UniProtKB/TrEMBL annotation:
Excises uracil residues from the DNA which can arise as a result of misincorporation of dUMP residues by DNA polymerase or due to deamination of cytosine. GO terms for molecular function: uracil DNA N-glycosylase activity. Residues 50-210 form the Uracil-DNA glycosylase-like domain. InterPro entries: UDG_fam1, Ura-DNA_Glyclase_AS, Uracil-DNA_glycosylase-like, Uracil-DNA_glycosylase-like_sf. It is an enzyme of class 3 (hydrolase). The gene is ung. It is found in: Cytoplasm. Belongs to the uracil-DNA glycosylase (UDG) superfamily. UNG family. It comes from Paraprevotella clara YIT 11840. This is Uracil-DNA glycosylase. Its main location: cytoplasm. It catalyses: Hydrolyzes single-stranded DNA or mismatched double-stranded DNA and polynucleotides, releasing free uracil. Keywords: Cytoplasm, DNA damage, DNA repair, Hydrolase. The active site is at residue 65.
Length: 220
């Protein structure tokens, strides 16, 4: 199957696109877009891949579902467009960066400046029905994004993987901890951030690791 996606990713993921599960996934997603309000816009499903080529990735942040509220999710996990109120999880991420690195809390929740530096912020599920969290789970997206994580682990070195919450932590077995830095913490959600996310210092730890391997740190 031919999928419109940035070339460095297409070369590595074509084997996934050619598998039967991906054909079934594509049929499901197309039907959903035809009959329901689905997020993000179809042209944005692979946005994070298109703006962060395979060899540019430095840090991988794993999420679960896109924001289900229209106007929030545009293809980057945890990020929202300029002018959109900052969701609770992202507000806690900004608070932790402020405590960890002393940086001021941004007014905008748009994380494209991180992506431009190599922060690959990926949801495990890439589409969702509006207002229906989890509506596109277990239809094939997880199989695809697990393959993405494995590719990054196998073909790259010295990446930082940030696993927040039990769902993301369950992906640890896809990552070679001898080649990469795996950072685990509670999810930054307002329901759980105080139970191990706030105070985790993941952002300074990531930069220390990157610099120790001759890689430019992220300006969080």
């Amino acid at each position: 199957m031919k999928v419109k996606i940035e070339e460095s990713w297409r070369l590595r993921l074509q084997e996934e696109f050619d598998k039967p599960y991906f054909e079934r996934l594509t049929a499901f997603v197309r039907n959903e877009y035809a009959h329901a309000h689905v997020l993000p816009p179809g042209s944005r499903i692979f946005y994070i891949f298109n703006v962060c080529p395979f060899d540019k990735v430095k840090v991988v942040i794993l999420g679960q579902d896109p924001y289900p509220t229209p106007g929030q999710y545009y293809g980057v996990c945890f990020s929202v467009p300029n002018g959109t109120p900052v969701p609770g999880s992202l507000a806690n991420i900004f608070q932790e960066i402020h405590q960890d690195l002393g940086k001021p809390v941004p007014a905008s929740g748009n994380l494209d400046r991180w992506v431009a530096q190599g922060v690959f912020s990926l949801n495990s599920v890439l589409t969702v029905r509006a207002y229906e969290t989890g509506s596109h789970r277990n239809v094939g997206w997880e199989t695809f994004t697990d393959a993405v994580i494995r590719k990054l682990s196998e073909e790259r070195e010295h990446l930082v993987f940030m696993l927040w919450g039990n769902y993301a932590k369950a992906k640890k077995n896809l990552i070679d901890g001898k080649k990469h830095l795996i950072l685990e913490a509670a999810h930054p959600s307002p329901r759980s951030a105080e139970h191990g996310f706030l105070g985790c210092k993941h952002f300074s730890k990531a930069n220390t690791y990157l610099k120790s391997n001759g890689i430019q740190a992220i300006d969080w």
